[in-house]
Amino acid sequence: MGNLDGQIAIVTGAARGIGQKIAVRLAADGAKIAVIDLKAEWCEETVAAVAAAGSEAIALGCNVAVSQEVDACVKEVIAKFGRVDIMVNNAGITKDGLLMRMSDDDWDAVLNVNLKGTFLFTRAVARPMMKNKAADGTQLGGAIINLASVVGIMGNAGQANYTASKGGVIALTKTTAKELGSRNIRCNAVAPGFIQSKMTDVLPDDVKKAYMDTIPLKRFGTAEDIANCVAFLVSPAASYITGQIISVNGGMIG
Ligand code: NAI
Predict the structure, then answer these.
(1) Which of 44, 91, 121, 219 qualifies as a FRET site for 14, CA 20 to 30 Å off?
(2) Span 200-247, pLDDT tens digits
(3) Which atom of ligand 1 sits closest to the CA of residue 150?
(4) Residue 119 is part of which domain span?
(5) What is the CATH number of the domain that holds 156?
(6) Residue 1 and residue 6: Cα distance in Å, rounded?
(7) Order of strands across the sheet with 245-248?
């Protein structure tokens, strides 16, 4: 199989989009996957794709913004697979609007899913990851990947809640790396640029062209581009990389 043989990965928001591609990519590298989304039944397609990639998956329904659900979810993963080695905090939402008109509810909803959800899963997997040890007592730890965004680095009009949540994810990534590094738990963020998706397909052509003009590689990214970066960051090849924000944006910003 691959360089993640025997490892257990949790991927949130994995019913579709980028999370689904990450789950399948890590499965192809040998990891068994806990596919997490709001409803377990939404995850069937991903579970089947993981099986087709030669691995095994379970589907669990969990709202990443609710502490008790997150803790119960991690317990269930450990009951089923015995351990957690990889955590991918991918679930995310947008509720765009200009700052002056943004409601409290829209602010809270986005911060709760994107930032608090990332904190809750990180807290829940930290202790189980600390217990990962080799037969000779070597600390195996684990790898945590957070999905940030290019707009969490540069800001974006109409996305006060979303950009603040992703900026928060970036800071949380660096702090997690500092707190858990001594246990060999690495934490990095991937900051996608403009990724082809159902969300971006519906944008007007002139908006797409304006984005394209800022991308030196002259194409939009794909979910696979993001999954490839995640696969590298969780692999042994990245064992000395932690606390970093890796932009995958075609050169949009440095
Ligand atoms: P998507 O909307 O296609 O998928 C997100 C998934 O998260 C969905 O399956 C949804 O049901 C799930 N989800 C939403 N709220 C949840 C909750 N409370 N609990 C559990 N699951 C929940 O989004 P996409 O495009 O695949 O994005 C994935 C990540 O990448 C997000 O964090 C997003 O912010 C980030 N990103 C995406 C970019 C893009 O261009 N598509 C660009 C930059 C970052």
Answers:
(1) 219
(2) 888 899 989 999 999 999 999 999 999 999 999 999 999 999 999 999
(3) 43
(4) 8-245
(5) 3.40.50.720
(6) 10
(7) 57-61, 32-37, 8-12, 86-89, 142-147, 185-192, 245-248
Mutation test of ligand 1: which of 11, 37, 156, 208 has the most ligand atoms closer than 8 Å to its C-beta? 37
The answer to whether position 1 is within a domain reads no
- Concerning whether 162 is annotated as a catalytic residue, the answer is yes
pLDDT on residue 189? 99
14 CA closest ligand 1 atom index: 9
Does the residue 71 lie in any domain?
yes
Count up the domains in the chain and report the number: 1
In a domain, 107, yes or no: yes
Atom of ligand 1 nearest to the CA of 198: 3
Degrees, nearest 5: CA angle 231-233-237: 95
Gap from CA of 135 to ligand 1 centroid (Å): 38
C-alpha 16 to ligand 1 mean position (Å) = 8
pTM: 0.98
